[in-house]
């Protein structure tokens, strides 16, 4: 079949940040299928150079408003390792609850506000207020509660305040935590169950595309790894987080202000679907029940199912947050001050699962506690090569459809990855010579 | 969002509703983003319970992050992010032409935000650091606030912008009134909240030179103020640096701390 096809979507909508879809097909031969990243670079290294450890998380938080909490957590872990700062069990438990809240917030934002309109064939969430008011209200309630978790424990949801290297400047009290727990049980769980039912009824709208893919996520022995763990590839198994460079191998491509990544193949995927594929055996029974209802089976190589995996893991996050709050309430909240007395000055690596996948920070500090060099590898940049590879496979499969339908299919594909483009171009990879 | 905040918003909206019933149609609103983290935009969606009430008063006609549709003109354009590429400059002029009111939302749009820190170093040098020999692929300008390029009618400050302030500006505009910007320091609000002074806890704080309006949110959570709202109109920076040095920072650290959000206002643009 001799097909000519030229597609250019400028500033793709309903994604975070600025990207263009470009496809060229000449007489049935695919010449180009890629996501151009046109987000303005922000040069975070210029901001971090010479900065004190107090400022590292304040600055890297501003890489992305949607992932700000994840950047902060990763930054604290990196700084704490580099400066030898011990943190308490209580701090770790509170951080895990914060990550659960941020994960639910971001997953709901993506699955119900940005992706669901595709399944219901409308241009945004706003028409759904009239046609599906209950879904919109449930989504707003879930997002509200997820944000309240951050507000209560860390001061606010976007660029949290009271979590700092070494601990917290202000701690929540038992009554506040108990209230959050009650709302998680009475509001979040029923709302998530309802959202899963709605998505089950839309299952036929999810494209049946598959491509054999390498999946990379954190993995730990004792829980569904979000806050901490080893790096795990579905191809080659586990390595410690200090080896993150061999699992990302960043390289520059002319069509993207964000660097691309590869590990064992030309590309790999990170995010909720990668976590599902590598860690589904660590999910709580309630989340597994929702997965079964939604038809999510491991291993799953359909990137469009990423949205479904987000809903499944949100159930786990809610259940686990309740468990963590219970254990904190049993032990009682201890009035701890943040530990900010460095015992050494060196380098550190931090790896955390943020909603869009695995996030790495690495800093080296000088004797004055100032940053000499920094590197951040962002989940969305790790996914970019994989998105291009998916596009190259999907275009020939759908090229005989009307152009409008092809464009919509490609937009849906990119959206399924829940790309956070602001993040992806704010990389730092710098060795300063003093 | 606290119950108090929710109550405040509901009252303001019902007032706006009574006034608006005299008017003919909903205000047409568009939301745009430039170079930033989109955290302020996310906060538009974080109105949650109030979002549906707000939509009673406005018709959102363009918002790339949330919807597909595009518009030819709008009553109010809320713009987030700083201007840092040639394309940004072209786009902001277009938006200004189509908008009756243009509101800068968040630190990046109002003062350049953290992006402006890069302006204090030569542009060639930092592009080389990030992209090496491929630097020619990606043109970049100094990060500028919107007001450096087009007329801005109102500011909603903060990093991220706070919903209460956004709503004050929003309801004022919807009611055809002029919002008022505070020009006193964060310390004033901190004292009104009866917080223990951050300096008394052995930390440093930029409250004395930072413009109020946030209800001293960070000091209320045990953190110091790092100046995200921009400076008061006549800040005594020399005295501020002296205080920082007296509390244990080196002169270089003190200066750097002040540049976190206010590089454009303090150093101007050097690249």
From TrEMBL, chain A:
Its cofactor is Ni(2+); Fe cation. Fe cation binds at residues 67, 423. Pfam families: NiFeSe_Hases. The keyword Cytoplasm does not apply. Keywords: Iron, Magnesium, Metal-binding, Nickel, Oxidoreductase. PROSITE patterns: NI_HGENASE_L_2. Belongs to the [NiFe]/[NiFeSe] hydrogenase large subunit family. Mg(2+) binds at residues 45, 426. This is Ni/Fe hydrogenase subunit alpha. It comes from Eiseniibacteriota bacterium. GO terms for molecular function: ferredoxin hydrogenase activity; nickel cation binding. Ni(2+) binds at residues 64, 67, 420.
Automatic annotation (TrEMBL), chain B:
Keywords: Oxidoreductase. The keyword Methyltransferase does not apply. Residues 37-173 form the NADH:ubiquinone oxidoreductase-like 20kDa subunit domain. GO terms for molecular function: iron-sulfur cluster binding; oxidoreductase activity. PANTHER family: COENZYME F420-REDUCING HYDROGENASE, GAMMA SUBUNIT, HYDROGENASE SMALL SUBUNIT. This is NADH:ubiquinone oxidoreductase. It comes from Eiseniibacteriota bacterium. The lineage of its organism: Bacteria, Candidatus Eiseniibacteriota.
